[in-house]
What does this fold into?
Amino acid sequence: MPITYAMMKQATADLYSWSLRKVPDDTKAALARARDTESNPVAQRTLDIMLKSAIAAETSDRFVCSDSGVPVYSIALGTRITMDGDIKQAVVDGFAELVETIRPPLLKHVTNPLTNERGYHGKDMPLITWDVIGGADYVDITCQPKALGSGRWAALEIFSFPSLARIEEYVMECVLKAGSQHCPPVVIGVGIGGTFDHCAKLAKLATMRPMGSRNPEPVVAAMEERLLRATNLTGFGPMGTGGDTTALAVHVEYASGHGFTPVAVAFNCWINRRTRARLYDDGRVERVE
Amino acid sequence: MKRLTLPASREAIRELSAGDMVLLDGEITITAGLPTIQRLAECANGTRELPRALEGAALFHLGSYSQETASGGLEILYMNPTTSTRFSPLMPGLIRHFSLCMVGGKGGLDAACAAAMAEVGCVYLSFLGGGAELHTSAIREVVSVHWSDLVAHYRLVTLRVEGLGPLTVGIDAHGKSLYADLHDAAARRMPEILAGLAADRGD
It folds into this structure.
């Protein structure tokens, strides 16, 4: 039984709708841990309100944030799947149908960058990154809507044979520049190496990892831990009004490249919107988160 | 936690300090649109007619989904803050012209805005981003919706709210800005933070 157009259309639309209504469980747990260790009274209160807001949206099945962002998908195709129909068009059609039917309705956030006109549809929308998983009999789909609040502050710079010290300094420059703006506490995804586009993709994939998971390579895991400590020494705090909790996690991914080394830094705001499902070749749909 | 009724007196506004948390009752006017702020700037310089009086008002950078009800009324399905900083260039003129008592949203405003706020007696309030359900639950009445030619979150919407918040005073009416202070402190601390990273790496 193949992965069908209808399965893809339904699953991608559902993942987007679900992502707007629920803060991931690992993120709520991280916020609660931060509340326990936060020393700033305003930050404590703000973290309390964040958790209250997350639970209120989930309970009422309504949006956590009015800015539903734009639909962004990371889709990986297993090499053992079979396909029936245009599954790429299915994602486009799923979103088009969703904007007509979703309740509450979405605000118009899809923006033409040349005119700043906003609507529900636009060139290349939804934004999809395609990948392949060797040997898998499923399609793995993650939906991660992106909005101005945190999307605005992602950055990339290309260095020549940088030291770890320079790479980490650049990450901290990005943290300082974003400051109070990106609805902290954030998840920070860092990509190192590859090419311009590959590095940016690594940073995005890093933000998708389970909250606080460590890179399997000890050198990178140590970098993640010290960059998290360093970020939280800046003092921007929840909603950028001060406190010990500016980031909930720093995730770093790298790829080999040439002597030019891009470093990309991406941020997810505190609601860390992320849903994920697997569509199996036997017709099963598994919601992973 | 302080509770303020709008319109608030300048005395009550000046009693607030950066870092205080407040709840609001009364009328607020909201928009999340740069075109809307640009229109308000045109109203202030006399080239466009102002659709409703804003003298002494609380003007917040909040986006909302407004729609007509079956009975011909208006309802707000949800509202939430947007990033204020992109409005910074136009806000000093609006703060002064309308003698706004409160502005707000998320992320703060720049030093020129803070100076205008200190002149007229105005505070910046930080709303929780990702707080749509909590903020929306404080709405008691849709007073008016103007500029409906714009997309929903850009419209100029006036609401009556009860217990809106808690909201954090990010910039007070004495020129103290948490945003500027925190940025300056983080920048000053950065050499020490980078030295800590070097020590952790064993450089």
